[in-house]
Every structure is written in C-alpha cells, then in structure tokens.
Amino acid sequence: MTIEYVSACGSTLAIHRLGNCNRNSPEIVWGHGWGQSSDQLLPLAESLAPFATSLLIEFPGIGQSPAPPLSWGTADYADTTAAWLRSLPPHPRLWVAHSFGCRVGLQLAARHPGIVSAMVLIAAAGLRRRRGLIQKARLRMRITGFKLASRWASEARRERLRDRFGSADYRSAGQLRPILTRVVNEDLSQEAKAVTCPVLMIYGSDDQDTPPEIGERLKSIIPSARLLILDGFDHHTILSQGRHQVVHQIHSVLKGMPE
C-alpha cells in the first residue's frame, strides 16, 4: 500500500492506494466514518484487492490529513473529494463509505453527477434520527442541564461541561467540534433525492447510532436505492464481524459495473 498527499480546494487529502489491477478494472473509493480513519476500512479493501484498486481517503482533519477551515460542512468535503477525483484519469468508480463517509457520498453524487458510477453506503447517516418520547425527553433534559450549568460558568468550566454533557464523538472531536455540530444537524433529504447512480445501503439490525429506519427513509427518496439489513450487527461490528458479508455485497456491485 502506498500513500500520497493531494491538494484540492485549498485543503490536503491523504490517499492510501491498495492493489494494482489492470486499467480496465473498477476503482473503489473509500470514505471512512467520523473519528475514524482509513484503518477501519482497510480489511475490506484488502479482501477486494484481487478485483479492484482501492483508494482510501482520509478526510481533512482526520488521520493524516491536515484540518480544514472550521466552517466546513459535508458539501465542502464532497467538493474537495470531487476536485481530486476529476484530476484522475477517467475510470468506473464505486464509492464505498461508512457513516459520516456516507454523508459525504450523498453530497458527492448529488452535487457532482456522474463522478462515481455507483455507491455502497454502510450504516449511512444523513437524515435526522426519529426519537421516541422518552428519548426526546432525555435529550431535552441534557440540553437544559448544560444550559443551566454553564450560564454563569467560566470558559474553562464550560469546556468541562461540554465534555460531560456532549456525545462521545463530540468529546473526542477536539478542534473539529464546530464541524461536527454542523454536520450532525444537516438534513440531506434534498441531496438524497438528487442522487441518480445505483445505491446499495447496508445496515446492521442492532445499530443504535444510525438505525435501519434511517435506511428505510433514504430508500424511499433515493431513486435507485436498495436496502439490506444484516442481522446481529451494530454500527461498528458491521465492519468487523460482518466484514465477509459486506465484502460479498460490494463484490456483487463491482461485478455489475461497466469496465
């Protein structure tokens, strides 16, 4: 595996290249989840190395890529990725992503039609979660608790309260917290409607971070979408324990792509 650094839209992407198939075989472009890196997708890419060249992105601010401007949303990540892809020789390309990378993929396919031939979205985010009454009440209590506790607090104290009341992703986001806050509040319904390439969405039945109901709603609005729910996996085990099933599905999509 080799790594290269490419500049696009004023940012830098670290790209890991794996495999060296013939020039007519498809390429897989991999987009990782929030707070992860290409490492989480590498085992899947290694399993598919005999069939396709893999290009594993590390998005700006994550892994080995320098941080982007703190005003970024997923459209900025998508436009930067598109600028890089346009610099490459024309090729059939499959976008495979997990969680946050699926948000970027939806923006990429909507804003830059034709730049990828198909997508496989694993545990896709992109729509706001539907919460029950108890979940909504608990969320409101956390928000109210934070506001009350931080009203007269010093900045140092307020930062400790953010760590206490924030999600695990928020606590670990560091300087990227403004981006995370913006991203999780995005609703990509309109972008999903504009996606024209074939899309396979894969969810774990036990996923509590991006529940399968999100996939059901995305399927209803993406014109060429299919939904597959794998029993017994959650948001993260779908990439590890569910790896062989996911690889099988990706390989099936690859075989249907033009050379």
Explain what this protein looks like in three dimensions.
With 259 residues, the chain is of the alpha/beta class. The protein folds into two domains: 2-128 and 185-255, Alpha/Beta hydrolase fold, catalytic domain (Rossmann fold); 133-177. The chain contains ten helices and eight strands. Strands 1-2-4-3-5-6-7-8 form an eight-stranded mixed sheet, with helices on both faces. Helix 2 crosses helix 3 (100-111). The protein is globular and about 60 Å long. The model has no long low-confidence stretch (mean pLDDT 86).
Which helices and strands occur, and which strands form pairs?
Layout lengths: L1 E7 L2 E8 L8 E5 L10 H6 L5 E6 L15 H13 L6 E6 L1 H12 L6 E5 L10 H18 L4 H11 L2 H5 L4 H8 L4 H5 L5 E6 L7 H10 L3 E6 L12 H13 L4
Parallel strand pairs: 3-4, 3-5, 5-6, 6-7, 7-8
Antiparallel strand pairs: 1-2, 2-4
Helix pairs in contact: 2-3, 4-5
